[in-house]
Specification:
Elements (H helix, E strand, L loop, with lengths): L11 E4 L5 E5 L1 H10 L3 E6 L6 E5 L1 H18 L5 E6 L5 H16 L3 E7 L8 H14 L4 E10 L2 E8 L6
Parallel strand pairs: 1-4, 5-6
Antiparallel strand pairs: 1-2, 3-4, 6-8, 7-8
Length: 169
Amino acid sequence: MRVNEDIRDREIRVIGAEGEQLGIMSPQDALAESKENGLDLVEVAPTAKPPVCRIMDYGKYKYEQSRKERVLKSSQKGGHLKEVKFRPYTGEHDLEFKIKHAKDFLEARNKVKITLMFRGREMAFRQKGWEIMAQVQKRLEDVGQAEYAPKFEGRNMIMVLAPKSVKGE
């Protein structure tokens, strides 16, 4: 392992593989100690007086750090955009069922995109679409709030709901 040129003439504080203090020694002695154990000498606090180095398996350390980051990423919940699609003449039971799914998504801390699709002559009954969107928004107001109000994008009416923030977040 390469030793930093500016610490070659100085003394360094060395911490052993098990976390024990090995004391202050020359970099050459510390390198010899680390090689004797088959480990690496890693400078952990270069600005300290004297600089602090640790004897450790650097490859294993990097691997454990990447695993910790991966676990943290996978444990983060929410942030995904889920979509629930309706039609203007969706039956009442189907409407309830889809609203229940949207509620589950919001409770799981996901955003929900509500899409109301119009086809053919259904475009003449846009008012029905506004009513359905208002109804959906009203039924989900206890768990979510409108991030984007209902609006038309071509033949689809779209609204995005975000989960309500919880105290302590």
